[in-house]
Amino acid sequence: MKKLLLIKYGELTTKKGNRKTFIKLLVKNIQAVLADEDYQIRYDRVRMYIESDSLTTIQEKLTKVFGIHSIVECYQVNTNMEEIASSLVTLLKDVSFQTFKVETKRADKDFSIHSMEVSRRLGGVILKNFPCKVDVHNPEMKIEVEIRKEGTFLYVREIAGIGGYPVGIQGKGLLMLSGGIDSPVAGYLSLKRGVDLECLYFESPPHTSLEAKNKVVKLASILNAYSGNLKVLVVPFTKLQEEIYKNVPESYVITIMRRMMYRIASKIIERRRLKVIFNGESVGQVASQTLDSMRVINSVTNIPVIRPVACMDKLEIIELAKKIGTYETSILPYEDCCTIFLPKHPVINPDLEKCLLYESFFDYESLVEECVQNIEVISLKETKKDELL
Hints:
The chain is an alpha/beta fold. It is built from 13 helices and 14 strands. The protein has helices at 19-33, 55-62, 81-92, 115-129, 182-192, 210-224, 238-247, 253-271, 291-298, 314-324, 327-330, 352-359, 364-373; strands at 2-8, 39-43, 47-52, 68-77, 99-106, 133-134, 141-148, 151-163, 172-176, 196-203, 231-236, 277-278, 305-306, 376-379. Helix 5 packs across helix 10 (314-324), helix 8 crosses helix 9 (291-298) and helix 8 (253-271) crosses helix 13.
């Protein structure tokens, strides 16, 4: 009886002709996460198997790999009823349960005993060896038996993975990452759909602090546990932001500032060969996220803007932020450039013609280009966690 981890793909199995590509990338991502571990991996189009002396550590690491539906701690035995039965008794001897159900899947049709009969026989063996009874509707213990060409796999414990697609299968996007609660959650959801990310942060020293920048880098580092490939692009936004406040009526400051951010993001996407913009906007949450504001702000770019949390309410976003580990960092009291000069009464239904008029009051194009030319690139592979905050 050999102990190993069995990986179930879940959504990847719906890909039909593209399944092989998805699985190969999943294997590559797993290998990157397990770079420091000693293990053996094999896979086919429906299952993946990992053998190691450090299965507990590996299992924990795999819970942050997108593309995995579930992780199963199982035992592989030879496919004959005597060995299956004796191995099952050994497996269950240290497990406490009052009711059970045996569920058999017979992928190897050369094995002559049908699934229902296998389950019936194994159920009888369990009843003889343990003080319990069968409950097919709501069992305390569900015993899974998978009969395959390479052997039979027995397991009673299945841990949910985080699902989604392998990171990178959809290419790369640009996440507008602030220090708030929403944008890291948007980043997590983007990664879950197979999009690798670079993160864009706007800093305005001396109006924003080094702590605010480190806070964003730490948030990106938390997200990087789900990717392993993130970079943070830091935009020096001070000069452009100050020009906005000098030349634009207070109520339109945030609208114009966001339009400039989209212009900068669009240029960076083209130069770094990324595909789309992601952000943490939620419909109606603040003045710049009303439908009218989104329409006016979006008009400066033809690059798709995806808002993963657009239709989530704040409590739902907070709950997910806590789940993925970003919430405690997000609520640290360091202001970003969107909050330091927030007007008392920002416009919620901006007029596009007014925006164009106010933007004509200063040479924003050269300032936007200056921002793009002077970005700082922080690779999280080179950033140690104890350097942050």
